[in-house]
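User: Hi! I'm working on a homework problem where we have to compare a predicted structure to a textbook description. Could you give me the structure for the chain below?
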Amino acid sequence: QTPPGPPRYEESTAEFALVERLLPPSRVPEPPAHPKYPTPSGWSPPAGSPPELPYFVRRSRMHNLPVYEGQRQGRRLTALRRIHGDIWALERDLRAFLGSLGVPEVQAQVNEVTGTLRLRGHCGPQVRRWLLQRGF
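Assistant: Happy to help. Predicted structure tokens:
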């Protein structure tokens, strides 16, 4: 007796539209237009064209500013990621801005390889506001 052959099947492209709905999108869609900004969640879109500065801060995949607050061994930290260009100029400008707000001397750690700037203390809202004012 011979073993049975492979099962018979029929290809159909008519139902593939149902399968496409289950597949995740290949990229995040552009955010919809809102009647006013900032939105209730606090999100604001970037300016139309990037500013003419020696550095650039790219937004995250979900169109948010890459400013993160955290804690490490009891220390409060603020991290700014996705920095391209002259990271030292950004650090100088950010220190000057935080100094104008009355924040005492801010300790910062610059990592040129990863394009990350870490600040001591929770100053995320101030950094986000500064980035929005600069047009990022």
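For your comparison, note the following. The first helix runs from residue 16 to 22. The chain has one domain: 8-136. Good luck with the assignment!
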